[in-house]
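Workshop exercise sheet. Pairs work together: one partner reads the sequence aloud, the other fills in the structure field after running the prediction. Swap roles for the next sheet.
Pair: D.N. / O.F.
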Amino acid sequence: MFVEDTPSDKYLYNHIAFDSPLEKENIMHSEIDEIVVYGKIPKSSIAIPTIVGETYSPDFMYVVERKDGTKELNIVVETKLVEKKSTLRGTEEAKIKCAEAFFRQLTIDGYTVSFHTQLSNKKIKQIIEEVIEEQ
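Structure field:
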């Protein structure tokens, strides 16, 4: 879906495209001071292999500024318009588990990426604040 509006200056793209109301909210209302740049990840641009022989690409990426001023923290977010993980379809839960393993391995290999699932009861600001506090 598309919206005719101007995104935040921190948004990577000039157009607003989204798959769900939660994604639209992330794009339109991400005026979070710590965000340096963010964007919706184009479909299939990150090809995470899954256990069903397909690939999967998460929804959003964020680069945020740490408390010490460095700007190297990468956050990848998968948004799901459900209240609880227990209500995810089996295939969606499997994709998320594959992404968690994929990004965990990237971190082991020296590329720090923080992968998170955003459900409809959590704002993106909460996720970013939690990640910054972990550092």
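Discussion prompt: The mean pLDDT is 85. What would you look at next?
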